[in-house]
Amino acid sequence: MKPRLLLSLLFVASLHAADAPKKTGKAKSTTPEVTYPPRLPGGKEIATDTSPDFLKPPGTLRPGVTIAKTPPTVDFLYFPGQNYPGKPWSNWGDSLAVGEKYYASIGDHLAPAGNAFVYEYDPVTKNLRQLLDVLSILKLPEGHYAPGKIHSRLDLGGDGWLYFSTHRGSTRVTTDQYHYKGDWILRHHLGSGKTEIVAQGPVPKHCIPTSALDPKRLIFYGGTAPGTGGDEDGVHFFAYDIRERKVVCDVPNGPARAMIFAASTGRIYYTQGKEAEQLMRYDPEKGGVPVKIPGQIGIRAASEETPQGIVYTVSQGKKDEGAQFYSFDTKTEKVEALGPAGVGSQQYITTLDADSTGRYIYYVPGAHGGSELDNSAVVQFDTKTRQRKVVAFLHPFYQAKYGCTLKGTYSVALAPKGDKLFITWNANRASRAWDSCALTVLHLPESERRP
After folding, report:
1. Which of 115, 277, 305, 391 is the 20 to 30 A CA-CA neighbour of 188?
2. Where are the domains of the chain?
3. Domain 3-8+31-448 CATH class label
């Protein structure tokens, strides 16, 4: 067994021991213990189902929300490599579909010695394989901080490299005690299979939970989170020129979780912090620092730019109102409010995916757990009619048939043809919290994705 993996396992064991209930004479928990790696019943690698149960709504369904008439066919499988307990195994960064293939990341959330992984799924061969693990790339000495999450997007550059950044598994380990200097920008070449470090600590002693890539100019944009003992400026916005290997912009009051990238202009937009709605614009052609522009918008997640030059966003969802949809015109920089995004009780939405026509947006409410309260609804939003339609309710079908509850996701991607929707789920089998990551591939009926 590798030394770092052994250290991670010992660390988990110590946490489990610390969290174990003391002997008080009370009855022991009847919750079954989960085993690793997670497996489907009968040792199957993949399960494929279609069922009218996918169209059964929960009691939380909101008025005006419609339901598809034809259920999808769904492939279901667990990510390989989950061979030990995470804290928890989870996905936090958005994924990507290129051609027929899907690229996604998960992490063990351990700290200070965590690890994260990137995978490729081929729906033709139905093969899910691990492309890399971060620890093997960083080759850090024992006792050094190692990231337990990939919280950023996976984005493909025009140079054929897949770009992403790393993030902490715990807020208490980004310290000098663990030799923390800042997190990493990494890249993986889809052709050669080579993975390499692009930069460490572009903003010193900051993690990098938020990213967007300009694939043409090869500029990596990031939103940071300060490590313990870092500066007092909080979240930064930065732009890193990959070709020149240097930071070309670094300012405080950056984006908390997501940004708008306008592929047609190369401009990047964000709001400062979680609750602020004031728009900021950075123009790589002009350089300098971001500037305020007119308009207010919520950006907890943002779609790709559509052929019409529109980017769709969704707000964080405040206490007095649920998550709201917005459109942003990249030519005029005009913002338009489009109405509510939620379809039930859950409002937290962290990934939006537009089809190639710009007509439909797909998403899953309840990202940070709770999606099952709305039967793990997978939603299609019609940008023309503003109709919210659920194309599938995946809970409680998978709980009943395979013992897996789909709890939420930060990672959804739509195939370029619009016929397959890939979702990486934070899932639990028998424990009370997430204990594994699973993949569903929804084969969307043509009748449900055409006007």
Report:
1. 305
2. 3-8+31-448
3. mainly beta
